[in-house]
Amino acid sequence: MKKITIRKPDDWHAHLRWGNLINSVISLFNVYGRVVCMGNLSDPIDNLKKIIDYRNKIVCLGNFLPIIGAILTKNSTVAEWTKITNLLYDRVFIKYLPEGVTTNSELGITWPELKNFYPILELAQNRKIPFLIHAEIDKDPKTKKLIPKIDREKAAIPFIKELAQTFPDLIINIEHVSTSAMINLIRTHNNLSGSISPNHLIHRYEDVCNKRGNIINVHKYFKPVAKTKADQDAVIEAALSGNPKFFFSSDSAPHFQEDKEKFKKAGAFNALTNLSFLCEFFVDHHAVGKFEPFVSRYGARRYGFPINDGIIKFQRQDWQAPLIYRGIVPDLAGRIMKWQIVVE
Q1: What is the value of pTM for the model shown?
Q2: Exposed (0-12), middle (13-18) or buried (19+): which is 310, by Cβ within 10 Å?
Q3: Facing residues of 312 across strands?
Q4: Is residue 239 within 8 Å of residue 196, measured between CB atoms?
Q5: For residues 339 and 314, is the Cβ–Cβ distance under 8 A?
Q6: In the chain, N or C terminus with fewer CB closer than 10 Å?
Q7: How far apart are CA 145 and CA 11, in angstroms?
Q8: Domains: count for the chain
Q9: How many whole angstroms separate alpha carbon 97 and alpha carbon 106?
Q10: pLDDT band at 250 (very low <50, low <70, confident <90, very high)
Q11: What's the CATH code of the domain at 242?
């Protein structure tokens, strides 16, 4: 097999950032029909004006349909979200980043506090607005002790289970799912789904951290952190399963090399390689027929969008991922990729 053609895909979770970063990476997303653009900027995108301004910025720079992952913060109100959904109901999702768990989540809401914002989730349930969850807890709610990085997704499961039971018709997606326990939970609740990032198909905990939890390779450090082989195997199985509950999102999260290395910022920049890697992944697992549904169909179906018009083509041709791209170190820097997108 030397050529593969699929329907134009979507990226259901990407960080485009702002300023020089967005200018550096946004053209890489023009291969997609839609991109969910996360709003966890230094000034979180959490109200109607910020959503419109950020969306207009992206529309001016990119050639895809942006859907803004607006952040649920301590400033969020039902009145504001009513205005948002009235105007942008099919161009905005709600993104939940618990306080302190990841980049620019300082205004996030802790899991115990989330009940205070249930009226917003009721609105989302009624309006069919997806609720996207970064499923981690960094501190034990009772003891306040830090939870090891490798256990933080699993620690969120009781809260997600309660949320799924409380809002049975809310579209809840667990972002960048990384553990077998979370995958099993998703399979048992009709209103849960899980997006899968290439990061968790490729890397394991030992690639990122030592046994004491210290980061040993900052360029492979993202959240949720890569897990054990057993968890990785479960994520791989879910991606290959053909179960429409599991679909692609890149979680591409760029930082300039100096900032990434100096401040040990979480995020892996994979926008250069993720589709080529996934093409290789499905071919190598003798599941090429599941490639297109995973990247082009299941997510659109989950969120109530039509399948994209247009196609993209891949050809069997080796190329090397660059060691540096516009000041950013790619996740698979230097790796020989086996499949290349055909530019026509």
Answers
A1: 0.97
A2: exposed
A3: 6
A4: yes
A5: yes
A6: C
A7: 35
A8: 1
A9: 9
A10: very high
A11: 3.20.20.140
Selected catalytic residue, list 10, 251, 309, 318: 251
Please report, as a single letter, which amino acid is at residue 181: A
Q: What is the mean pLDDT of residues 98-113?
A: 89
Q: Is residue 338 part of a domain?
A: no
Give the number of other CB atoms < 10 A from CB of residue 270. 25
Q: Range of 185's domain?
A: 7-307
Cis status, amide bond into 224, omega within 30 of 0: yes
Helix spans in the chain (H):
19-25, 48-61, 78-88, 118-127, 152-155, 157-166, 180-187, 198-202, 205-208, 229-240, 257-263, 274-284, 291-292, 298-303
In a domain, 102, yes or no: yes
Task: Assess whether 138 carries a catalytic annotation.
Answer: no
Give the residue among 150, 281, 162 at the shortest CA–CA distance from 226: 150
Answer yes or no: is pLDDT of 56 > 90.
Answer: yes
CA distances from 103 to 52, 120, 266 (A): 22, 23, 7
Question: In the predicted model, what is the mean pLDDT of residues 209-226?
Answer: 94
What are φ and ψ of residue 333, in 5° steps?
Answer: -50, 125
Distance CA 128, CA 303 (A): 9
Residue 240: strand, helix, or coil: helix
Cα–Cα distance for residue pair 303/315, rounded to 1 Å:
30
DSSP 28: G
In a domain, 316, yes or no: no
> Using 50, 70 and 90 to split pLDDT, how confident is the model at 288?
very high
Give the closest residue to 197 by CA, choosing from 344, 68, 13, 4.
13
Q: Is residue 333 part of a domain?
A: no
Residue type for position 199: N
Among 221, 278, 208, 224, smallest CA distance to 255 is for 221
